[in-house]
Amino acid sequence: MEEIDFIIDEAKEAMNGSVAHLEKSFLNIRAGKASPQMLGSVFVEYYGSQTPLSQIANVNVPDARTITIQPYEKNMLQPIEKAIMIANLGFNPMNNGDLIIISVPPLTEERRRDLVKQAKAEAEDAKIGIRNHRKDANSDIKKQEKEGVSEDVCKVAEETIQKLTDSFIKKVEEHLVQKEAEIMKV
């Protein structure tokens, strides 16, 4: 019986992880306003290793359309600028000798639709992950049944796993609807 509870807890934790990953992915999909998370995928060559931008510079958002990046070391201005271009985020960084300024352009209707597609793809990946966790949990339950756990206990456990799956997929849907509204809002 303890083993069954453990399987259910493990599945719940894994499904929670899928939703958390989705939330993190959604932070990288910009929705009009500037935010430091937009540069979360930028890695800079720093003394021979790829380092996240946030570890070598101060990233600020003075207003809804501007991101400023102030490196801790002046000699990092060019490498940071280059890394932003390589990241292909659609930004055009400007270097004024002290800091890098990025003007976040307003989103076009076409770009908004692309971002919604990207959000839907992320949500679908999260759902697939949740379903895979369900499949793993159900196969673990089947193993327990073969090892002598009663059929009734296993049936209840499978129903519990299905309810968990449904609730987490519903969460993913809610996150997607929210993100879609955020992206499409002009």
Please tell me about this protein's structure.
There is one protein chain. The chain has 186 residues and is an alpha+beta fold. It contains 4 helices and 6 strands; from the N terminus they run H-E-E-E-E-H-E-E-H-H. The protein has helices spanning 2-27, 77-86, 109-146, 151-184; strands spanning 43-46, 49-52, 57-63, 66-71, 94-95, 100-103. It has a 4-stranded antiparallel sheet, covered by helices on one side. It has a two-stranded antiparallel sheet with strand order 1-2. Helix 1 runs antiparallel to helix 3 and helix 1 (2-27) runs parallel beside helix 4. The radius of gyration is 22 Å and the shape is elongated.
Q: What is the strand and helix layout of this fold?
A:
Blueprint: H1 2-27, E1 43-46, E2 49-52, E3 57-63, E4 66-71, H2 77-86, E5 94-95, E6 100-103, H3 109-146, H4 151-184
Antiparallel strand pairs: 1-2, 3-4, 4-6, 5-6
Helix pairs in contact: 1-3, 1-4, 3-4
Give a short summary of the structure.
With 186 residues, the chain is α+β, with helices and mostly antiparallel strands. The protein has helices at residues 2-27, 77-86, 109-146, 151-184; strands spanning 43-46, 49-52, 57-63, 66-71, 94-95, 100-103.
Count of helical regions: 4
Q: Which spans of ≥5 residues are poorly predicted at pLDDT below 50?
A: none
| Distance between the first and last residues' Cα | 53 Å
Rounded Rg: 22 Å
Please, what is the average pLDDT? 89
Sheet with the most strands, sense and barrel status = 4 strands, antiparallel
User: How many E strands?
Assistant: 6
General shape? elongated
Helical amount among residues, as a percent range? 55-70%
Beta-strand percentage range: 5-15%
Strand order of the largest sheet: 3-4-6-5
Structural class: alpha+beta
Order of helices and strands: HEEEEHEEHH
